[in-house]
Amino acid sequence: MSIYLPIAEMSLNVIVLFGIGAVVGFFSGMLGVGGGFLVTPLLMFYNIPPAIAVGTGANQVIASSVTGALAHFKRRTLDIKLGVFLVIAGIIGSLAGVRLFSLLQNIGQLDLIISLLYVVLLGSIGLMMAIESTRAIRHRREGAPLPVRRPGHHRRIHRLPFKVRFRTSKLYVSVIPVLVIGFVIGLLSSIMGVGGGFIMVPALIYILQVPTNVVVGTSLFQITFVSAFTTVMQSVTNQSVDIVLAMLLMAGGVIGAQYGTRAGAKLRGEQLRILLALVILAMAAWLGFRLFIRPGELYTLTPAG
């Protein structure tokens, strides 16, 4: 059963698109990531143009993030104050990212830059998380005490000015690193079509020392608002959001996120981190492999203007 996508200008299988949304939603609810780092490559693998995959991928992230964030809000594992700071910085970063996206598209380097960013970012972050999580799991199996990560205790960050207390996360840190993290996430959201959870989660855990159970809900909270803003900007500026494709992905994402949230509640912090690391590394490896495959069409002609 196929459906025509008006912006992408192609017909694709409805069940496959719905399934992509469900898979992304499941990982979103379980790991606290928006799922953009999954949905954009998956759409590209399904031969959807990268520009459409990026613009529409940011839109799909919203549905799964909202449902996941609400679930964490009910469990009181969401730091709203921290999330607000991240959202403000993320919106500013999104504005800068949309302009950069348009520039790369005009000079014909968008596809290559998107692929390279995914390989570099996913590979480095996934490797870092895999090493740390494997070490933590090994300590637990051997009965050795796990390294204590006390919330908010980071020497360099603790010296920065403009400190704010975030009670839910048990933090008393400068807002400078918080705003920097939010800005970077907003920038990447516009360029890569990601919610930024695959960067947000490690950054909050390893840089700010936010407790893992609070990180998931707070990450989804920020992703919801920044992704919504990015979608509007991409639609208005670059006309790269396919609403038909977005609705199918969102429908699958909402259902998948509910099951993912339940699955995530049954796993320990280090288990969640190693699972996220493995998913990230798998996507990086596949994207890296595709960079060396000879494309079916060596040249693509697009109308000028």
TrEMBL record:
Record keyword Transmembrane present: yes
Main location: membrane
Entry annotated with the keyword Transmembrane helix: yes
Localization: Cell membrane; Membrane
Pfam family, one: TauE
Transmembrane intervals: 12-39, 51-70, 82-101, 113-131, 171-191, 203-229, 241-260, 272-293
InterPro entries documented for this protein: TM_pro_TauE-like, TSUP/Inactive_protease-like
Listed GO CC annotations: plasma membrane
Mode of membrane association: Multi-pass membrane protein
Record key words, sorted: Cell membrane, Membrane, Transmembrane, Transmembrane helix
UniProt signal peptide: none
Family: Belongs to the 4-toluene sulfonate uptake permease (TSUP) (TC 2.A.102) family.
Listed name of the protein: Probable membrane transporter protein
Source organism of this protein record: Candidatus Tokpelaia hoelldobleri
Lineage start: Bacteria, Pseudomonadati, Pseudomonadota, Alphaproteobacteria, Hyphomicrobiales
